[in-house]
TrEMBL record:
PANTHER family: ARSENATE REDUCTASE. Residues 2-136 form the Phosphotyrosine protein phosphatase I domain. This is Low molecular weight phosphatase family protein. Signal peptide: none annotated. It comes from the Bacteria. Pfam families: LMWPc. Keywords: Arsenical resistance.
Length: 160
């Protein structure tokens, strides 16, 4: 089994969108969780509304700390963006690490339509990257850790 942790600071938008989308698309043997280094304590309502519109289950997802993970991850993917000098937390432990930066839609401003578009952009970027991961040949995913890391890093540059 491959356990993936999507990690950011607040665990209210991007990492929740990634966790839910990953689990919705995941083949057997893959599972994602998400967490934050400083969780907000609540999932952003626009994240939940977007998942519902996309037909992705969101029951049970909640903002949580990386200190309370139910499993030890095999792969940690940080999703913090570069907007406003955001700093990604560094997960300590013997895991594969990759960075798939996405700007935080929770900080979007403007009209409701513009804010919704920011959430949709974050979701679309994460979904495209997750789909690219699952499109890799099984031999690559089950291969040497350095090869998996190279692919994770490459995928993190897609759809910016």
């Amino acid at each position: 089994m491959k356990n993936v942790l999507f990690l950011c600071t607040g665990n209210s938008c991007r990492s929740i969108l990634a966790e839910a989308t990953f689990n919705h698309l995941a083949p057997a043997g893959w599972h994602a969780v998400s967490a934050g280094s400083k969780p907000t304590g609540a999932v952003h309502p626009r994240s939940l509304a977007l998942l519902a519109r996309e037909g992705i289950a969101s029951e049970g997802y909640h903002s949580k700390s990386w200190g309370t993970l139910p499993v030890v991850p095999d792969i940690v993917i940080t999703v913090c963006g570069s907007a406003a000098g955001e700093t990604c937390p560094a997960y300590l432990g013997p895991v594969l690490r990759a960075h798939w930066g996405v700007d935080d839609p929770a900080h979007a401003s403007g009209t409701d339509a513009q804010i919704d578009a920011s959430f949709m952009q974050a979701y679309a970027t994460l979904r495209a990257r997750i789909e690219a991961l699952f499109a890799l040949p099984a031999a690559t995913l089950d291969g040497a850790p350095d090869a998996v890391k190279r692919e994770l890093d490459r995928i993190g540059t897609l759809h910016k």
